[in-house]
Amino acid sequence: KITAIKAREVLDSRGNPTVEAEIQLADGSTARGISPSGASTGEKEAVELRDGDKSRYQGKGVEIAVSGLNKEVNGAISGREFDSQEAFDKQLIELDGTANKSRLGANAMLAASIAYARVSSVSKKIPLYRQLVQRDKYLMPVPCMNVINGGRHADNNVDFQEFMIAPHNAPSFKESIRMGEEVFHTLKSLLSGKGYSTGVGDEGGFAPNLKSNEEAVEVIMEAITKAGYKPGEDISICLDPATSEMWKDGKYSLFKSTKQNYTSDQLIDLWEEWINKYPIVLLEDGLGENDWEGWKRMTDRLGSKAELVGDDIFCTNPEIIQRGIDAGIGNSVLIKLNQIGTIWETLQAVELAQKNNYHCFISHRSGETEDTTIADLVVATNAGHIKTGSGCRSERISKFNQLLRIEEELGANSVFAGKSTFKGFL
Ligand code: PGA
Ligand code: ZN
């Protein structure tokens, strides 16, 4: 039985306010959840409620969202018992009463939803991943580490947002993260040897000014080799160019390195060229959220060569994912809790995707916190891969650390997803 929910305004990794919620049960159990926040957001994401009061945090305060939890939600849920995550989250959805969670705010609702999942696991004395989904065996994910940042996540001249490495040829998560970190550190010395900056972007990847976007891939290839690994064999490359950010008047206009314009088909050509030339196994948002026709052509051309992940286009929304499945768009769904706003709906999105043989790629946001829920979520869903930033910065590393603990705890009851995650694309 819930005694109370208490919310407060805390800070995310960019120093912007976000919502933390704490739920207390009558048996004494308490737990917290914190919402993350994106920068390159999809148009159809659930609404993040911000105060807009310019005299505080440049309008980014979340006091209204916090007060909604402390008053309205607290009034509605305290003293009550819910028999499942579904029941709790449906209560939040009903209270909010809007289609896009704009009244209570998805930031408030997700913090509450996470706190409820966590407090349930505390009360039952089971790990969070088991609270989310019960299984005999769990799959440990490949950490797709975003080692070069560009786009909206960094102040450099690289247009594309994320250049990731996927260390898949490992016996365990623990070894996989070691391989990734070794490449990360090698990349640092390589960049500095070339006279480039080794300052990092929002997700902890390096953010140098490069001669071209492609140089980001080239230098990562060099780092993989120099660290003693075989590109493609041991470690592959994943990209999230986040192209919705470049979509203007029916074209993609690169906004940093050059002012060059690409049509959808020219961009598909570029991705095909790169996929043929480099060991790229995953391409997220290769085209933008409003370019469904382009997405269809991209899927027909590249869907058998790489995992094509829809982030902005699907927004973790089961209705939109269903439309994508019906239209044959992509073969994978990016899963971000705060895009849809509750744990239950997130699990519904995963289930729908997996039932239709779509992959699920579990993801953080560029504005993160110490909340490690996605580490448990990726294990719970057997999704096989996670992106949660680079090899540094604790709001990213906290998820890796949680995965190290989970792998140790599961012992023989887990297997490392490894190469099987990218089957068909390696
Ligand atoms: P965001 O970036 O959190 O800024 O939206 C992550 C992504 O685009 O995948
Ligand atoms: Zn993305």
Helices and strands, with pairings:
Blueprint: E1 2-11, E2 17-25, E3 30-34, H1 63-77, H2 85-96, H3 106-124, H4 128-132, E4 138-140, E5 142-143, E6 145-149, E7 162-167, H5 173-193, H6 213-226, E8 235-240, E9 247-248, E10 251-253, E11 261-262, H7 264-277, E12 280-284, H8 292-302, E13 307-310, H9 318-327, E14 332-335, H10 337-340, H11 343-355, E15 359-363, H12 373-380, E16 385-387, H13 394-410, E17 414-416
Parallel strand pairs: 4-17, 5-16, 8-12, 12-13, 13-14, 14-15, 15-16
Antiparallel strand pairs: 1-2, 2-3, 6-7, 7-8, 9-10, 10-11
Helix pairs in contact: 1-3, 2-3, 5-6, 7-8, 9-11, 12-13
The chain binds 2-phosphoglycolic acid (PGA) and zinc ion.
Zinc ion is lined by residues 240, 242, 284-285, 311, 334.
What would your notes on this structure say?
By secondary structure, the protein is of the alpha/beta class. The protein contains 13 helices and 17 strands. The strands form four sheets. Strands 5-16-15-14-13-12-8-7-6 form a nine-stranded mixed beta sheet. The chain has a three-stranded antiparallel beta sheet with strand order 1-2-3. Helix 1 packs across helix 3. Zinc ion binds next to loops. The site of zinc ion has 6 residues, from loops. Pathway: Carbohydrate degradation; glycolysis; pyruvate from D-glyceraldehyde 3-phosphate: step 4/5.
